[in-house]
Amino acid sequence: MSLYVHQLRADQLIFWRNRESAIFVYLFPVLLFLLLGTVYDGTYRGHPLVDYLVASLLAYGVANTAFGGLAIMLVVRRESGILKRIRSTPLPPWVYVAAALSSIFVIFVLQTLTILLLGKLAYDAELPSDWLSVALAVGLGAAVFAAMGLAAASLIRSAEGAAAVVNVIVLPMTFLSGGFGPTRDFPAFLQTIADVLPLTYFVRIMTGIFIDDDAIWTKPGAIAVLVLWGLVGAAIAIRRFRWEPIQG
Questions:
Q1: Distance from chain centroid for Cα 97
Q2: pLDDT digits (tens, 9 = 90+) for 195-234
Q3: Could you tell me which of 92, 89, 112 has the C-alpha nearest to residue 100?
């Protein structure tokens, strides 16, 4: 346990000292929320649109942090030889991975609290009444997208291209999934594409909790799709994850 706590503390220090990572992973979803909350107007299912944005930007924060942030961090550390050196130390590999995942989760929890606080103070957004469902949904989303982040880190071959690959995946997926606003007016073919994306189902869970006061267990289909994506990501990571730099 002491090794885990020590590594978790080290990961947190490394993250917050790296301004670029802190801005991209922690601050970017917060800034997007402030921007969209300022320019978007109207209602969604009888609620101010900002209530939707709180839920959808929290969902985007999961994808950006647990998927994008984790994938970029691991690829950079692998290609710079850090993971290989860690593998040769007495630190068990599972402790390092557990600490890295926990560090990402801590960052997302702080990001979630920031968006909720800003939503209430800046836009008087209505907060959900079922906080247990919020916590379970956040935990599920973090686990699923972290598994996908591990898979992405296993497949991305260069540190230079990591951020580009992640952005090419995360930003279009968020747009199509409703992370930046409702998709009710999207063309049918875009909605068809959205129906296969994991973030679509996470946005539906989050907006259901925030807008309709639905408990998380009222969305078994969405939960099943997310779990399936998580299992696929975990399977790829188990099979393809490498500690040494990828050659060629």
A1: 17
A2: 999 999 999 999 999 998 899 999 999 999 999 999 999 9
A3: 92
Single pTM value for the model: 0.90
**SS3 (DSSP) at 43:** strand
CB–CB of 199/172 below 8 Å? Answer: no
Q: Which residues pair with 190 in a beta bridge?
A: none
Gap between the Cα atoms of 94 and 140, Å rounded: 20
214's torsion region: left (phi>0), alpha (psi -120 to 50) or beta? beta
More confident of the two residues 28 and 141: 141
| Rounded Cα–Cα distance for residues 157 and 91 (Å) | 25
Q: What's the rounded Cα separation, in Å, for the pair 95 and 111?
A: 24
The residue with tokens 């598994």 is: 147
**Whether the Cβ atoms of residue 67 and residue 202 lie closer than 8 Å to each other:** no
pLDDT grade for 248, boundaries at 50, 70 and 90: low
Question: Roughly how many angstroms between the first and final C-alpha of the chain, as a whole number?
Answer: 38
